[in-house]
TrEMBL record:
This is histidine kinase. Keywords: ATP-binding, Cell membrane, Kinase, Membrane, Nucleotide-binding, Phosphoprotein, Transferase, Transmembrane, Transmembrane helix, Two-component regulatory system. PANTHER family: SENSOR PROTEIN CREC (PTHR44936:SF9). The lineage of its organism: Bacteria, Bacillati, Actinomycetota, Actinomycetes, Kitasatosporales. Residues 1-28 are annotated as: Disordered. It comes from Streptomyces formicae. It comes from the Bacteria. It catalyses: ATP + protein L-histidine = ADP + protein N-phospho-L-histidine. It is found in: Cell membrane. It is an enzyme of class 2 (transferase). It holds the Pfam family HAMP. The chain crosses the membrane at residues 41-62, 173-194.
Length: 448
């Protein structure tokens, strides 16, 4: 089998090994909603930043445009007042009156130096925006020379400045109100897309756990629909490849039964000798391999059905360990009774004990507590690849080849699924492999 199909087989085999995910608690759902790493908040932050940048740009543009218009109007008013004062001053000169009596005229000592600097030796007119005394309000000054006399006037700009401040304040309020509407709408719009993505992710997890009939069936023509379609196509192809491999395994096992039967018969007719014992041992191993392949093919096809009945769990486990002819310490707590298929449970326990002796180190400990059976050894533990992907057929996880054909754990996981049990593989501290088989409770009995 190639790597793709092998990974698919391991995913299907690990259905029982994976613990059922508990329903999300309210606290967990709240954390997932508030998680700043979520795409929801990244989209919201991007839209909010864009809205803030747009509001800031429009605000600056409106502020400067209004300010320029206000300053222009102020200069025009000041120049108009200067022009009237100049005309009145010249009329006073022609009437023989002194310049100090001209209406609008400001004495030279009262003219700000900044305005005089702007005017210089020229005749003007010039303007200057005076903000030296904020409490008294800003003024727009205009100055010029009339008949050699410096003439200056000023126009009050406080009303215009307050109008500009009110405009800025209203624009800030409008921007905040817009954000108060945009942000929730963005979160809602992002949630609609994320819900579709989570549905795709959930379908992918179901496929990983062995449900090859899971499909997203996404509708639409956007990018999320393309992802959904790609996941569905991948699941279709994976299912077909897996079924093809399952059919191949079943065909090989069935085709080997006939020549194997002849080989077993021939081996039984050989004269007793050391070579005969060796041949019979290899025939026995080959027969066990074919039986395992047939069992896996039935598990793959879903043809296995459990025949459950109440069984004394402690006695059954002790008998299963005894028949392995391997040393193992069995501890039974209480007198547990389980509703299960004794033949399949015997197969699971036997394979777990054999696997512990083959790949682990003694002592091997088997503990029965309630409806839970724990098999532990003190070897190097399960390899990380097996813990990540589940048991894979024809991969033993051993550093050296030839120590088993890698079907024991695969069969144990498959039979666990048939009887509705949950098989979990883990490593113990400081070392050792732990296989925990949790059987379903009897109806009407208390857990444990």
């Amino acid at each position: 089998m190639d790597k793709t199909t092998d990974a698919a087989v391991s995913a299907v085999s690990a259905v029982s090994a994976d613990r059922t995910a508990p329903p999300p608690s309210p606290g967990r759902s709240l954390w997932r909603f508030a998680d700043p790493r979520s795409l929801r908040w990244k989209i919201t932050a991007g839209v909010t930043a864009a809205a803030c940048a747009m509001a800031l740009g429009i605000g600056i543009l409106v502020h400067r445009s209004t300010e320029d218009r206000t300053m222009g109007n102020g200069r025009s008013s000041a120049l108009w007042e200067l022009e009237k004062a100049t005309a009145e001053l010249r009329g006073e000169h022609s009437a023989g009156r002194t310049p100090s009596t001209a209406p609008g005229y400001i004495a030279g000592d009262e003219v700000p130096e900044q305005l005089l600097d702007r005017l210089g030796p020229g005749a003007g007119p010039v303007t200057w925006y005076d903000t030296r005394k904020p409490l008294q309000g800003p003024w727009m000054w205009a100055a010029g020379r009339a008949d050699g006399t410096v003439l200056a006037v000023k126009v009050y700009m406080g009303t215009e400045e307050r109008s500009l401040q009110a405009l800025d304040r209203h624009m800030r309020y409008s921007a905040l109100a817009t954000l108060a509407v945009v942000v929730p709408l963005t979160v809602l719009a992002a949630e609609l897309g994320l819900r579709r993505l989570r549905r795709v992710a959930g379908t992918a997890r179901r496929i990983k756990q062995g449900d090859l009939d899971a499909r997203t069936r996404g509708r639409g023509h956007d990018e999320i629909s393309e992802i959904s379609s790609a996941v569905d196509v991948m699941a279709d192809a994976l299912r077909e490849r897996l079924r093809s491999e399952q059919r191949f395994t079943a065909d090989v096992a069935h085709e080997l039964r006939t020549p194997l039967a002849g080989l077993v018969t021939s081996a039984s007719l050989l004269p007793e000798s050391e070579a005969t014992d060796l041949v019979r041992d290899r025939v026995r191993v080959l027969r066990g391999l074919v039986d395992d392949l047939l069992e896996i093919s039935r598990l793959d096809a879903g043809a296995e059905r459990a025949e459950t009945q109440p069984v004394p769990l402690g006695e059954l486990v002790e008998e299963s360990v005894r028949r392995t002819d391997l040393e193992a310490r069995v501890t039974v707590i209480g007198r547990p009774v389980a509703e299960t298929d004794p033949r399949r449970l015997d197969r699971i326990v036997t394979n777990l004990v054999l696997n512990s002796h083959r790949h682990g180190r003694p002592p091997v400990e088997v503990t029965v507590d309630g409806t839970t059976v724990v098999v532990r050894d003190h070897g190097p533990g399960f390899p990380p690849e097996l813990l990540d992907h589940g048991p894979q057929r024809f991969r033993t996880g051993a550093a050296e080849r030839g120590h088993g054909h890698g079907l024991g754990l695969t069969i144990a996981v498959g039979q666990s699924h048939v009887i509705g049990a949950r098989l979990t593989l883990a490593n113990a501290e400081p070392h050792g492999a732990v296989a925990t088989l949790e059987l379903p409770h009897r109806a009407g009995s208390a857990p444990g």
